[in-house]
Amino acid sequence: MDRPHPFSGRLYQGRRILVTGAAGLYGRALVPRLLGLGAEVRTASRTAPAPPLGSTEHLLGDLTDRRFADEAMDGIDAVFHLAGRRGSIGLQTSQAATMLGENALVCLNTLAAAQRAGVKALVYVSTVTVYPPMAVYREDLAWSGNPHPGDQYAAWAKRIAEKYVEALAIEHGFADVAVVRPVNTFGPFDDFDPKTALVVPALIGRAERRETPFTVWGDGSAVRDFLYVDDAVRGLLLAYERGLAKGPINLGSGTGHSIGALAEAVLAATGHPGPIVWDTSKPAGEPSKIADTTRAREILGFRAEVPLAEAIGRTVAWYRSQ
Predict the structure, then answer these.
(1) Are 256 and 290 spatial neighbours (Cβ–Cβ below 8 Å)?
(2) Which is the most buried residue in 200, 213, 219, 271, by most CB within 10 A?
């Protein structure tokens, strides 16, 4: 029998909801949605959001600090935990200690503070990089092997946090938690710096700067599942509404796109004349990474709605507006 939602009847109106990592990609899209649904929103991040996030109470601080995590949770009903380090394959390796240590501390502190404060519902944003290499990611296979070496440090931190969610439910009855594992998500307010960004914003930033030659790592054959941030945020809200205590759930399109097709779509959206030069001496990551979205459809009623080319076009338009 399904557990009743802890806020059955009024999920948002008047609820005090904390969004961690609110200055980032997900937070920028989520906070306006929560405000529109009638929530009283508190945000927490290490840097001040620019521009500001509307009528929210913002706390500036570092969630690796237990005292700040406790302060952020004071009087809160529900949490969307988005905070964490993300970045390119190169960054994952060069900043290995940061990716493992900071991500683990942020997540463990936040989850423990939420339990201590008596928070009633929490959505934890993990990642599909917790999976070992496999063509199609299914939720029950996350612990069937080690993460890919290119993502391993951040992935282990996220794995530890997922296991801690399980442990909190066992020891403290803190069970109304939704764990979501989004695929590679992009959109407005993303990181477009090619030294640190993930693949889509990195390509957009370089194309908009008319980088020539337009060099892309690998040979273009690697296949990935991409999600526009508006779809991802809709999935987070559905996880809060329908996914508490239901186990981990992938958020993705369930459709694979080659890096070659992605690069061509970016050139088309930006008007970059190309051509693409493939650097096969550089790592391209796993051959295929696609999310099985069965649970998302069946439990949340979630399907991605924004096609990849449209999502790239929207992101380019936002980038140019800045």
Answers:
(1) yes
(2) 200
User: Into how many domains does the chain fold?
Assistant: 1
Q: How far apart are CA 288 and CA 268, in angstroms?
A: 24
- 52: preceding bond cis by omega (within 30 degrees): no
Per-residue model confidence as pLDDT tens digits over 184-218: 999 999 999 888 888 999 999 999 999 999 999 89
Report pLDDT for 90. 58
CATH of the domain at 78: 3.40.50.720
Task: Name the token pair of 138.
Answer: 């299914």
Among residues 63, 54, 66, which one has the least CA distance to residue 27? 54
What domain range is 81 assigned to? 16-187+226-254+289-305
CA-CA distance, 240 to 79, in Å (whole number)? 9
| Mean pLDDT, rounded, of the chain | 93
DSSP one-letter code for 148: P
Q: Tell me how many degrees the CA angle 28-30-36 measures, rounded to the nearest 5.
A: 115
